[in-house]
Amino acid sequence: MTLHSAETDDLRDLYRELILDHARSPRHFGRLDSATHTAQGINPLCGDKLSLYLRVDDERRISASSFEGSGCAISVASASLLTDTITGLSVDKAEAVFDAVTKRLTQGGAGNLTPIEEDLESPFSKLAALDGVREFPSRVKCATLAWHALHSALSYGTTPATTE
User: Fold this and answer.
1) What average pLDDT does the structure give for the chain?
2) Domain range holding 10?
3) 31 φ, ψ to 5°?
């Protein structure tokens, strides 16, 4: 095993632990009573269901976010990472993160990177923990469910976001 592959394995282990930590102890879990934006998310194949709550202030900044629901470890961890990431962001930046994360999970990280994606390339980016999901195509829908709910909430969607 080369040093490079040992470092890669260590990073994968760290990301795996981060996913498990967020799945076991999700951040921002529970209903946000003062939400200005909400969306439901459903993954019919896996059974994941979530409600996403956002409070967007007058300056179009997400001042608070939370979620509730049930699902597999990847779905819960992704929703937890999402709320950790978007709280404090402008609506426009949150939409850019949605675009970058869903593109990264569905198409991979190859090619020219946008500034948002360059941020995701940082080894310190918690969102990079989701990269391993690409190795399991059936689980990509679990990882992107909360992100589609985010997009729906910010777009004032009235139907549940779905991964189908």
Assistant:
1) 84
2) 3-162
3) -75, 140
